Amino acid sequence: MTNYAAVITDFWQTMFRGDVRYGDETVTVTANPDLAHDRRAMVLETVEGPAALVVTPDLAERLDFSGRPDLSELRRRLSDVDITLHGADHLFYFTRAARDRLLAEGPADHVRQLTRQDVDLFDAFTSSASESDLDDAFVELDHWAVFGVFEDGRLVAAASMYPWQKSTLADVGVLTLPSYRGRGHARHVVRAICRYAYHQRHQPQYRCQLDNDASVALARSAGLTRFGQWDVVAE
Length: 235
Known about the structure:
By secondary structure, the chain is α+β, with helices and mostly antiparallel strands. It has helices spanning 6-15, 57-62, 71-80, 96-103, 119-127, 131-137, 185-199, 213-221; strands at residues 19-23, 27-31, 41-46, 51-55, 89-93, 111-113, 145-151, 154-163, 169-176, 203-209, 225-232. It folds into two domains: 6-85, no CATH class; 94-225, Aminopeptidase, CATH 3.40.630. The protein has eight helices and eleven strands. An eleven-stranded mixed sheet has the order 1-2-4-3-11-5-10-9-8-7-6, with helices on both faces. It is elongated, with a radius of gyration of 19 Å. The mean pLDDT is 96. InterPro entries: Acyl_CoA_acyltransferase, GNAT_dom.
């Protein structure tokens, strides 16, 4: 994980800190009494290194660690104690080298930051998108940062960010109108908003569901590298 900024690896180590209740070469289970109710069970699988499961102490007491269970078996045993996980998200970040290339890059002429004065443009943009696309992208004009791509004076793609988990990580969502896809707009707007995040001393974070192949392809084309996947208890 040395390819990533220390703030990223430190964040995830802190999220999964606790008293070790079980561990082998593939997974470590910790118990943390400070977990919020909606974070009472979380799983992190990184590209490098063993997986991690953190739970509240009461869940740790109820879990069965006999027989050297692997992560898939631990997931099943969580369901035995009425814990269902939401379904993992990919986690993408810029490596240090990719960050340096991004920061050395100039802005694209057709991409700019959006403000509240762009409300009419933004409303016209969202009215042209489907409800499912809007829900999946979670791009909002009142987020911490918002950038848009324009074609012939029309807003055709947008990305927004908000600080995530009370940290310096900034979670990004992106949406391109269907008839304007395949033109590189999403890549340009993601890189623009991530460059802005770095200038504001935040670390860009890109999350998407495991089966969203188009979003995975976008993350990679924008220069991000897969760090791992994160899952959390479903409510």
